[in-house]
Here is the input.
Amino acid sequence: MDSEKSKYYKEMLQELLSLGYTINSVTIDGKRGLNTVFKGYPIQMCHFHQKKIVDRYITKNPKLEASIELQKILNRLTKTTETRFKNRLLEWHTKYEDFLNEMTINNETGKAIYTHYKLRAAYSSLCSNLDYLFTYKNNPAFQTPNTTNHLDGGKFGDLKNRIRVHRGLSKNLKLRLVDFYMINNGKKF
Here is the structure.
């Protein structure tokens, strides 16, 4: 399904701006390219999605000491400041740098690969999103949520249910239903 391409977000942003909406901040789910679409706006990376990204690499119950410690740092995300989080992440990287750089030779290809590539990917994800993890605390006047949960479960949950009830609708009618819903409920977003 190609419904979540960055170009569609860009089109949606232009549409909202042309309708006179003011965008104070944006909470994103980690989809690649969204930070460039919303460049110039305060961007918050959804904490729930960031946790899921890390869990995908190191699992919910990691066995490696380095993974367990990284997970502990991530679990404090909502309870800490940006400076403390960055410092703990830097301390973690310094402590495990040699471990992260361990290489293994692939017997079939003879190429060297990182032994703990998934742990490296989890750390890399945190580093890439670091500038977007504390926007909600750094710009309290915007009241930016730190997750997309309210929108995903609450606001769009009702809309999804209305569409689901009418399963046989054509794509055109579904789009009209979404437009009608947004026009009549848009102020609540």
In short: The first strand starts at residue 26 and ends at 28.
